[in-house]
Amino acid sequence: QAAGGGGRAAPLACGVHNVCRLLTHRAHGFYARDAGVAHRKNLGLLRKIMCQESTKFKNVWTTHSASPIAYERGRIYMDNYQCCISSIAQEPRILYQKSKCAKSEKIEDALLLECPLGEMLPSPSDYKASLIVLTVQNWLLRLSADSGEVLEKVYLAGSCCKFFRYLSWDTPQEVMIVKSAQNKLPAAARQAGIQQTVLFYLAVFQVLPLSFIGMLEINKKIFGNSVTDVAVSNGILIVMYSMGLVRLYNFKAILEQFMEQPFDLGQEFNWNGQVGIVGKYPFGLPCNIKITDTPPLLFEASSLENAFQIGGYPWHYIITPNKKKHKGVFHICSLKDNALAKNGIQDMKCCSLEPDWIYFHPDMSGRIIHVGPNLIKVLKLKEVKNHADQMEIAEDFTIVANRENCVSNSVTVTASGRVVKKRFTSLDDDPEQETFKIVDYEDELDLLSTVAVTQIGADGRAHLDFHCNEHGILLKSIPLKESWDVTYSHEVYFDKDLVLHIEQKPNRRFSCHVYQMVCDTARDD
């Protein structure tokens, strides 16, 4: 009833008369006065406008650089993150430009940090986007994304490790992992018989506010001699071995079981005879998580080149049998019992220089995207009829490249004048035929984007296509004006009304081309 006591009870919204359904609808933001509804409506309108025939994407800006160019959420970073350019304005503008840094301050890796919704944070600056960067001298810095101002700084490397190089998310925007390069002894030390047992160091941080959880080492004595790499994702420690083996461990359980003593950033400590302040130079961070015994194994699989993915519903994984002859063959198996799904062997039988690739769809639908040179398959998991405990792989839809028949005739004439015709088939990724190079998903507009390239002589032409994510129908095609050289690397970002193409050119030159949505091109011209 109304707070005054005399009013009538408000009617249930949208005609929903079930309390559970009402709460579910409310959680999903189905009501007109909910901010989520307005946002979804706006994005729906943007998608319709963008896919109209009259809407064009215009190349509004191009720049070149002698160093790599990066893009994050409407910001273009150049000169090793010393220059930040906003791509949201009608014409890109510089947000900040720092003086050229010394080699000792070079940034090795970076992550964009965005404010979590609905949480109280200790500092007003925490509510704005920031950039976490890792320098070559083992400093972890949090920079303002708009001004480049240093908001926080943490020194990582104490006596244990000198070479932190990689940043990644364990839980996106919540738990961050800082990984060292693989420890390798100098040749002279190896010849002297000195053995290196510690392969990697992992420092774990909670973000916003930035806090230190712990540091641990990946040791040969615990995980074996043939470890080649490690990664952490969604609470799972992934250990990869030279023979193609992949092993999974519960990372959260490892932190809890082997934590010797917790430390906070800025705290004074006396650790193994060292006295210092956590996160300050020259002491850095203590290695306070000591794995003394092999943790319980959650799962292991053998796959060519350690290629291993988990996704779908119910949980499945994708591997390639661990033999070179099986390259390009993918097995989709149940995580529960390792059973191969019906139609679970996916093989495009490509005859190409570049292999096809497969991955779980990032839209969380549980579908699978399999990309070949001239064909994109979107696959789905479904129950086998009359066998509820067994799953099969079915085709949801396909996207086919627009190319001509690749079969041509080679005509030769013998010495006697006899004409001989030999039929041959060109490669599936023949550059003179349209070939898929990039497939991506725009989550806010629910569009699947593809980049297809055709090379004619020295000139390559590319176009970016938008497809309905549900059915694969082509909704829009955008030609890219610049030439596309297939021998160099390219990145294409599609971010709502913005398309951005970053390419590498000969002699390590980099270019960035920005396209923006234009609705009235006639008046523009």
From TrEMBL:
Top-level lineage group: Eukaryota
Signal peptide start-end: none
GO cellular component, one term: Cul4-RING E3 ubiquitin ligase complex
Keyword Nucleotide-binding included in the entry's annotation: no
Family matches, as InterPro entries: DCAF17
A Pfam family reported for this protein in Swiss-Prot or TrEMBL: DCAF17
Keywords, sorted A to Z: Membrane, Transmembrane, Transmembrane helix
One annotated GO biological process: protein ubiquitination
Entry's transmembrane regions: 198-218, 230-249
PANTHER family found in the cross-reference section: DDB1- AND CUL4-ASSOCIATED FACTOR 17
Name used for this protein in its record: DCA17 factor
